[in-house]
Amino acid sequence: MNETTTYLDNNATTRIDPRVVDAMLPFFTTHWGNASSAHRVGRGVTAAVAQARRTVADCLEATPGEVVFTASGTEADNLAIRGVVAANRGGHVVTTAVEHPAVLETCRELAQRGDCELTVLPVNADGGLDLDELQASLRPGRTCLVSVMWSNNETGVVFPLAEIADRVHAAEALLHVDGVQAMGKLPLSPTVQHIDLLAFSAHKFHGPKGVGGLLVRRGTKIAPATTGGGQERGRRSGTENPAGIVGLALALHLAVQEQPNHDRAIAALRDRLQAGLANVGGLQVTAPDAPRVSNTLHLTLPVEAEPVLVGLDQEGICCSAGSACSTGALEPSHVLSAMGIDASRAHGALRFSLSRETTAAEIDHVLEVLPRVVARVVAVSGVGRG
After folding, report:
1. Active site residue ranges
2. In what order do the strands lie in the sheet with 117-121?
3. Burial 16-52 (b: 16+ CB within 10 A, else e)
4. Which CATH number fits domain 6-14+260-381: 3.40.50.150, 3.40.190.10, 3.90.1150.10, 3.40.50.10420?
5. Annotated domain spans of the chain
6. Are the C-beta atoms of 301 and 350 separated by less than 8 Å?
7. Which stretches of the chain drop beneath a pLDDT of 70?
8. For residue 157, what are the CA distances in angstroms to 9, 121, 149, 297, 300?
9. Pairwise CA distance, residues 80 & 179, whole Å
């Protein structure tokens, strides 16, 4: 990546913090043992993994035994949903129409196989959830799990988890939260205390790829996703990834510790970007009045996003057409469809996602480049001509 690159696709992945890299390096070189080994080569690694688990637990206001390390946020979501359904031998699951595919596709697969009943709740035009509709969907004694995201990966819209948790727990159901896009962007306390299962992924908060985690509150019954060596208290067997686990723990600690100061700065830059694009013809900000994470600006244009993305990339600007997980899909975003945004508009969606590394100069670069790229695409496509 050269000096002219303006990277605004941090909801897809963040650059790993150099401090995290330094913490991980010994586990590729001198501390290379297996954390499950009892001899001297393994014992130091075992201790490092245990310390990392304590660090993560402290960040999540949990105990070390409630932390399960996984290979990704997707695996953590799957472990939570499949684990609860299997432990309950079926039951009723509730989710929403704007969830990440790791949640939505998993729930639908389980329902299609007859492993559970499923209710998928709609959202309003701002991507918000009607809590009365959620209440009406719950079946006390039958609903075993409600699975919702904390903040949306495309639009940045935030769900009111404390209020959701009150209703879910009143129905004696468990609350699983996909927190992948919230960690490091939203304060964890006191909301985290309302959550039974919380999934997260290190590479979304300046940690390494290939490692994530699941908070499983004490007393929450889940069946294991994999069996074998009995690691992670039998909930996720498989040789641990010490370098990744150590990196995740430090990245999470730094994110939680530094989040308040970074949040204000990132919000100011996001608002500067949003205000500066107000004069781009036909541009519409998605859910501008809804509660959103500070780093995400989602908008739609009256032209196809693809040629705009190409033009921006040629100018060194990296962003996305919604979710990186659905790149290459011909259908419009399921999130935007659920919000009632028509397909033609949805095809013009762009997402700018900032991080603590984003600078004012980078925002100014986008404000200088995007209007002329859009104007060029409009001229070529003929949009707006009589």
Report:
1. 325
2. 67-70, 212-216, 197-201, 174-178, 143-149, 92-96, 117-121
3. bbeebeebbebbeeebebebeeeeeebebbbebbeeb
4. 3.90.1150.10
5. 6-14+260-381, 18-254
6. yes
7. 1-3, 322-330, 383-386
8. 17, 16, 10, 10, 15
9. 12
> In which element (H, E) is residue 277 found?
none
* Beta carbons within 10 angstroms of residue 54's beta carbon: 14
Q: How does pLDDT run across 120-147, given as a tens digit for each residue?
A: 999 999 999 999 999 999 999 999 999 9
Structure-block tokens of residue 4? 């002219």
Q: Under the phi-then-psi rule, with left for phi > 0, alpha for psi from -120 to 50, and beta for the rest, what region is 282? A: left
pLDDT at 2: 44
Task: Pick the closest to residue 349 from 286, 295, 293, 288 (CA basis).
Answer: 286
Contact 199, 214 (CB under 8 A): yes
CATH (one of 3.40.640.10, 3.90.1150.10, 3.40.50.2300, 3.40.50.300) for 18-254: 3.40.640.10
Question: Pick from 305, 340, 336: which is nearest to 320 by CA?
Answer: 305
- pLDDT on residue 323: 55
In this prediction, residue 147 carries a pLDDT of 98
Residues 6+ apart with CB under 8 A from 45: 27, 31, 32, 33, 34, 35, 37, 242
Give residue 381's pLDDT. 78
Structure confidence by residue, pLDDT tens digits, 175-199: 999 999 999 999 999 999 999 999 9
